[in-house]
Amino acid sequence: MVRESSPCRSQKCRCLLLGLTVILIFGAVAVFAAVIFAGRRDPPAVLLQWKGRGSTDNLKEIMLGRCFTYTEMVNPELRKDCLKIWETFKNAFISKNPCNITEQDYQPLMELAAHPILCNKTLLWSKTNELAHKYTKVQGNFLTLEDTLLGYMADGLTWCGNPSSSEMNYQSCPHWRECANNPSSVYWKMASRAFAEAACGVVHVMLNGSISQPFGNSSIFGSVEVHHLNPKKVHLMKIWVMHNIGGQPSDSCSGSSIKELKSIIEGRNIAFSCEDDHRAVQLIQCVGNPEEPACRVCRT
Ligand SMILES: *[C@@H]1O[C@H](CO)[C@@H](O)[C@H](O)[C@H]1NC(C)=O
Ligand SMILES: *[C@@H]1O[C@H](CO)[C@@H](O)[C@H](O)[C@H]1NC(C)=O
Ligand SMILES: *[C@@H]1O[C@H](CO)[C@@H](O)[C@H](O)[C@H]1NC(C)=O
Ligand SMILES: *[C@@H]1O[C@H](CO)[C@@H](O)[C@H](O)[C@H]1NC(C)=O
């Protein structure tokens, strides 16, 4: 015979059930309190909101990896402590207002990461990012800022901190139009200045002749690098104005923009020369455009 299924008729059983219920309620209350308490102890940081992209995900891993790649493989003679470089980099901006970064913040990093650059090897560029780096990769004898440790580590990355937290702000960072003294702008300004100051002998510059002003005085090249070449060390600036293959040239060595640059450079007692579409660089452009008239072996 099947017994009626209503549970717990006995006193003992009721007690057990009551006990279990009490334990369950206490447990739930304890977990709830723990969550609230933990939340109180470590309140979520209030992140300032900006218009620019937030810090690059995995910034630390990327920068450390690049530093090791650079010091082990790209430039193996260089003796640098990458962990110390990362810590010094982070300390420049972490827990600070990202609109209030100063040159002093980055000074220790600049000193730590500096390395010598041989004479005649400096290649500056403006608005020719892709072509300039393709060229130095193939040519092997020139260095852009992005081929130095500081430029190599930070190329294409974004970073900023937040005053109320010791973490990166991965949500947003100031756009350069929001404030000039943001972590990236100050970094690139200082790294560019140090790169220009280190240049000696002949300095080459690759500019873009397919935009209306190949030389712009508000670019990093026009506002920082031009003014920090040392005339005691740099005796000649060679400009290459490159045009998009098959496109309509917009300006050239004889344009007013380059003339303005010439007068600034000569005013600083550095000799100046300019060449349109330097052939060795044009050959790099021709890899992707072999049929264009400018790329034929026998040009008329
Ligand atoms: C910016 O930094 C300077 C010096 O570190 C400090 O005196 C000033 O109060 C800071 N301003 C803001 C808005 O954080
Ligand atoms: C740099 O180039 C100049 C001119 O081409 C040359 O006279 C000089 O010897 C070169 N210096 C080095 C270190 O190669
Ligand atoms: C010149 O600038 C334009 C616009 O930024 C770009 O599309 C082009 O690739 C640049 N040309 C060269 C030769 O770098
Ligand atoms: C940049 O050039 C423009 C004219 O081309 C001039 O009005 C301006 O003052 C210059 N700015 C600087 C910082 O030299």
From TrEMBL:
Annotated CDD domains: Rib_hydrolase
Gene (name only): CD38
* UniProt key word Nucleotide-binding: no
Transferase as UniProt keyword: yes
Q: Where is the signal peptide?
A: none
Molecular function GO labels: identical protein binding; NAD+ nucleosidase activity, cyclic ADP-ribose generating; phosphorus-oxygen lyase activity; transferase activity
Q: Which InterPro entries match?
A: ADP-ribosyl_cyclase (IPR003193)
Coarse class of the primary localization is membrane
Q: Which domain of life is it from?
A: Eukaryota
Q: Which reaction does it catalyse?
A: NAD(+) + H2O = ADP-D-ribose + nicotinamide + H(+)
The subunit field of the Swiss-Prot or TrEMBL record says: Homodimer.
- Keywords assigned by UniProt, alphabetized: Disulfide bond, Glycoprotein, Hydrolase, Membrane, NAD, NADP, Signal-anchor, Transferase, Transmembrane, Transmembrane helix
What's one Pfam family the UniProt record gives for this protein? Rib_hydrolayse
**The enzyme's E.C. designation:** 2.4.99.20, 3.2.2.6
**Cellular compartment(s):** Membrane
> Which named protein is this?
ADP-ribosyl cyclase/cyclic ADP-ribose hydrolase 1
Its source organism is Vombatus ursinus
Q: Which GO terms describe its cellular component?
A: cell surface; plasma membrane
**Which membrane topology describes this protein?**
Single-pass type II membrane protein
